[in-house]
Amino acid sequence: MDENRVQILQDLGPAAAQIQHPSFVGFFHPYCNAGGGGERVLWTAIRDVQKEFPNVICAVYTGDTDASKQQIIEKVKNSFNIDLEPTRLVFIYLTKRYLVEDSLYPRFTLILQSLGSLVIGYEAISKLVPDLFFDTMGYAFTYPLVHYFTNVKIATYTHYPTISSDMVNRVYERKVAHNNEARLASSFIWSTGKLIYYRFFAKVYGFCGSFASVAMVNSTWTKGHIDELWHTKAEIVYPPCDTERLNVLPLQGRKPIIVSVAQFRPEKDHSLQLKSLAKMMEKYPQTKSMGVELVLIGSSRNEGDANRIDRLRKEAVELGIEDYVRFEVNASYNLLVSSLGMAKVGLHTMWNEHFGIGVVEYMAAGLIPVAHQSGGPKLDIVTEYDGKPTGFLADSVDTFADALYTALSLSEEEYEQIASNARASASDKFSEEAFSSDLLCALRPCLT
């Protein structure tokens, strides 16, 4: 056993030191303290591995150097209601996480972030070589590095492919998106250059992903892209949702509140939510007297997120809807559950969301989802249940406005019927038990 492992076992205390033949699983998750859906997957996976394999030490490679082990564990409990075993959990702190911050690279973001991940990947394995390297964020460029330097098995849970055919097609069709600025999309030369760059990057990304021994993905949409790029057969393991706790929230007494649960990242498109609310009130002015409120709940990870929130507040003022919008930044899990228990509608506007765990939480909590007609919400989540509707899909300001109005205008009987369908669908497919069973089935060959 190398010196790093011996030191870790000593630091963990007598209980860890007495483990016979300890095995180390390294969870590569540089933003483990972010508090989003990806982090719920991470902490649920760690909890399940700790329960199933008493000889495993879970090591989390994280760049959250400003948070202690105790602080992170407490946040996990407060945010997700997940209990961890601290005597078999260690944090390996990475000092160069800034190299994967998108704000550092205004141009060639994909390739430069990926190259940056090589640096922190090397830093991770230089501090601890695990028996299984488990990437839970999607930094595929680290896989060849880990393979050639350590020859350990590599598992991955991919929430979203770094590049996809949809992204390439948007550049090819010269459509404006968060990854394709208007002034570049309008230029034939820039678009052609970017198309070449994206196609080259997709080839390299596919090569790197092929080093994964176990590939898990969170949705049908993600599986299609990963299988195509990595030439693999990924296992769909739907992310965990605390359906048991959310299912007990009563359907009666709900208010005309629209809840949006999403990190304040650009691709979540909170601006579309504000515009849709404003359009709904313009097209259906009677909604202003209904007591409608849009509550934006999400975590702010860094200065970029904080600036984005400030811009959204200003946009609400410009649209004249500031009195109908409330921001809940870095809210506790209890506040989240309380908000879900009062609202009727859950709003989700990200285009080609890889999965959409927030949408599942809406459904489990008894909200009617109004989600983007693409990605996971379209293919896996907001689908019929026993031939009955579970929510609404939209893809523009106008269609979102109409869907919101329709959901808010339902009679109590109609609302409870659709909400019940949605809740039943979420409980069947997306419970923590279903996640645990599928995850452990995929990992067991690597851990036994």
Automatic annotation (TrEMBL):
Cite the ALG11 mannosyltransferase N-terminal domain residue spans from the record: 24-230
InterPro entries found in the cross-reference section: ALG11, ALG11_N, Glyco_trans_1
Protein name, per record: GDP-Man:Man(3)GlcNAc(2)-PP-Dol alpha-1,2-mannosyltransferase
Provide this UniProt record's keywords sorted from A to Z: Endoplasmic reticulum, Glycosyltransferase, Membrane, Transferase, Transmembrane, Transmembrane helix
Q: What is this protein for, i.e. what is its function?
A: GDP-Man:Man(3)GlcNAc(2)-PP-Dol alpha-1,2-mannosyltransferase that operates in the biosynthetic pathway of dolichol-linked oligosaccharides, the glycan precursors employed in protein asparagine (N)-glycosylation. The assembly of dolichol-linked oligosaccharides begins on the cytosolic side of the endoplasmic reticulum membrane and finishes in its lumen. The sequential addition of sugars to dolichol pyrophosphate produces dolichol-linked oligosaccharides containing fourteen sugars, including two GlcNAcs, nine mannoses and three glucoses.
Catalytic activity, EC: 2.4.1.131
Tell me the GO BP annotations in alphabetical order.
protein N-linked glycosylation
Listed GO MF terms: GDP-Man:Man(3)GlcNAc(2)-PP-Dol alpha-1,2-mannosyltransferase activity
The Swiss-Prot or TrEMBL record describes its family as follows:
Belongs to the glycosyltransferase group 1 family. Glycosyltransferase 4 subfamily.
Q: In which pathway does it act?
A: Protein modification; protein glycosylation
Does this UniProt record's set of keywords contain Glycosyltransferase? yes
Q: Where is the Glycosyl transferase family domain?
A: 248-423
Q: Which organism is it from?
A: Mucor saturninus
Keyword Magnesium carried by entry: no
- Compartment annotation: Endoplasmic reticulum membrane
